[in-house]
Amino acid sequence: MSSAVADLESGLNAMQNLKPPGVSGSRIAALTALCVNNVQSESVLIQKIYTHFKKAPATHKLGVLYVVDSVTRKWVDQAKQHGQPINSSAQDGTYAAGVHRVTELLPVLMNDITQNAPGEQKEKIKKLVDIWEKGQTFPMTMIESFKQKLNAPPVSQNESTTPVGSPPPGAGLPGLPEAKPSAAQAPNDIMEALANIARQNITAPPPSVSVPAAATPFSLPLTQQGAVAQQPTLQTTQSQSSTPAPAPFSAVAHPINAPNLPYQYPPTDTTSGSRPDSALCASGDCK
């Protein structure tokens, strides 16, 4: 096993000395045969290929991916011939186990080469994915995800990805003090806020105030209205003494409808013509 792993590593290193993308048909065939004949070490072989792919420069990653493609398709054919189902339950050191292990690592390899490979190699990568699709080498869902990434429009390095508009506050570079607004900016912000408040006060409708309904004026009977209308206005005069004198009151022209009194009002003394004492009237002796 040690010799097979050493031979694989030596052959991969030699491919880096070739011009991009580091492809040699004879070397790929030799490395493929080495992996098929030493399938019992499939886990170590795959680990060596993966490590070499990650270390390879972007211009030579496609050459390593060709090795992965050739070895995997040979292992798929051998797994079918030996009746080995390709799944996670495959026994280590078998063709099916090797294919399953490559399938788990392939998304990482494709993300790396899609992002870093030169633009002129993208068409070759697409052709490789088409071969996998026709041969059903890998799951179709995985192949579709590879095709979507390869067909996505490239993002130009000179094109700014910053959204249109000013950056949010505090979005400066790390380690640099945050830029503070100038002194002239603060009054402008205050004036703008006051103007907005004034516009809101002008445009806002005045609050509705419910006015209580006017109370219905009290109406007197017609007879009482006539009597009140003809009453003279009382006038109060300030006398020289501290106690004001009562104002004279004249009888109304029309009597108010009131119950008949047992005596004449005002009662008069027939003998003297003077007004009797109130106490005598109360006792009935004023008659």
UniProtKB/TrEMBL annotation:
It comes from the Eukaryota. Residues 1-154 form the CID domain. CDD domains: CID_Nrd1_like (cd16984). Pfam families: CID. Residues 229-251 have a biased composition (Low complexity). InterPro entries: CID_dom (IPR006569), ENTH_VHS (IPR008942). Residues 150-184, 226-287 are annotated as: Disordered. This is CID domain-containing protein. The lineage of its organism: Eukaryota, Fungi, Dikarya, Ascomycota, Pezizomycotina.
